[in-house]
């Protein structure tokens, strides 16, 4: 029984139009608004507190908002009575002010200040620079892998796809002003791996069908290859989204940015593996001859 072939490339002009629109919006958001870097990158005050009873993190966040610290990051560490509060600020004495504000907000619970630290902005700048270099190195390694595994047109297509996915995720975070911290950076690196995996599956089938479907042109080949890999792509995307959405809704505030970045990345990565990567092959005019390794002429050394 022959499988019905879906004409994905029949919508390629509309899809690329939307892709260019969202990419330009993402780049514009990054250029105009920029990323809202978290304490990991900007530096600030860190306060470790110990309560005499299990701490209610939501109540502490509400108390800090009322005290004028709406951007404070509150989380447990170790026991349920131990709390760490992180606030973006260049004032080293802010940590003691935060502790005093919490004491006044809830007198029914006794708390002790265990440690107050100030993370300088130079540490955050170093983390930001190293994270950016790590992301670029990951993309460069991906391109080298695809060059040796496939061919240079596939490599550039993979790199364009990865750049598209990263720009969209960063653009969304910049547009809405969501905090960009180390967990989100980790999600970006995970998205690079996820998107590459989807793209490689489609590219591998396109290359294989180039040798099998002799009479099919490139667009027909891409439609057939994408249809053949659709079930695998859908199963991977849905199963990944189920796990990520569980983190998004039940993982708490500390994992929200990580889960949101992965959610956007999985959706965008699935889309780009169908349209961005495949359409690039059409623009690059991939032919069957591109996949044939060049023949090395043997030199006759006999006198």
Helix and strand arrangement:
Elements (H helix, E strand, L loop, with lengths): L11 H21 L3 E2 L1 H4 L1 E8 L5 H10 L6 E5 L1 E9 L6 H12 L5 E9 L1 H29 L2 H25 L2 E2 L1 H31 L5 H33 L5 H19 L1 H8 L20
Parallel strand pairs: 1-6
Antiparallel strand pairs: 2-4, 2-5, 3-4
Task: Summarize the entry for a quick read.
The chain has helices at 12-32, 39-42, 57-66, 94-105, 121-149, 152-176, 182-212, 218-250, 256-274, 276-283, and strands spanning 36-37, 44-51, 73-77, 79-87, 111-119, 179-180. It is an alpha+beta fold. Helix 6 packs antiparallel against helix 9, helix 7 runs antiparallel to helix 8 and helix 8 runs antiparallel to helix 9 (256-274).
Q: Can you offer a commentary on this structure?
A:
The chain is α+β, with helices and mostly antiparallel strands and 303 residues long. It is elongated. It has ten helices and six strands. The strands form two sheets. A four-stranded antiparallel β-sheet has the order 3-4-2-5. Helix 5 runs parallel beside helix 7 (182-212), helix 6 (152-176) runs antiparallel to helix 7 (182-212) and helix 7 (182-212) packs antiparallel against helix 8 (218-250).
């Amino acid at each position: 029984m022959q499988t019905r072939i879906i004409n994905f490339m029949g919508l390629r002009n509309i899809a690329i139009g939307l892709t260019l629109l969202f990419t330009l919006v993402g780049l514009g958001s990054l250029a105009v608004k920029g990323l809202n870097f978290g304490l990991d990158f900007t530096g600030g005050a860190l306060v470790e507190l110990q309560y005499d009873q299990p701490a209610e993190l939501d109540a502490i966040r509400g108390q800090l908002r009322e005290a004028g610290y709406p951007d404070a990051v509150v989380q447990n560490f170790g026991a349920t009575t131990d709390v760490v509060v992180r606030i973006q600020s260049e004032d080293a004495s802010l940590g003691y002010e935060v502790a005093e504000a919490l004491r006044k907000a809830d007198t029914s619970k006794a708390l002790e200040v265990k440690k107050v630290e100030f993370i300088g902005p130079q540490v955050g700048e170093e983390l930001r620079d190293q994270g950016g270099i790590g992301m670029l190195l990951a993309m460069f390694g991906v391109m080298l892998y695809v060059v040796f595994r496939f061919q240079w047109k596939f490599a550039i297509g993979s790199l364009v796809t990865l750049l598209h996915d990263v720009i969209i995720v960063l653009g969304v975070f910049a547009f809405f002003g969501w905090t960009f911290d180390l967990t989100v950076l980790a999600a970006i690196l995970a998205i690079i791996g996820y998107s590459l995996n989807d793209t490689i599956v489609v590219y591998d089938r396109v290359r294989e069908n180039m040798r099998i479907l002799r009479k099919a042109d490139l667009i027909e080949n891409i439609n057939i290859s994408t249809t053949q890999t659709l079930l695998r792509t859908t199963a991977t995307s849905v199963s990944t989204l189920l796990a990520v959405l569980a983190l998004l809704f039940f993982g708490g505030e500390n994992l929200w940015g990580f889960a949101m970045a992965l959610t956007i990345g999985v959706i965008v990565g699935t889309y780009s593996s169908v349209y961005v990567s495949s359409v690039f092959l059409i623009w690059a005019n991939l032919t069957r001859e591109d996949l044939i390794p060049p023949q090395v002429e043997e030199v006759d050394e006999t006198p």
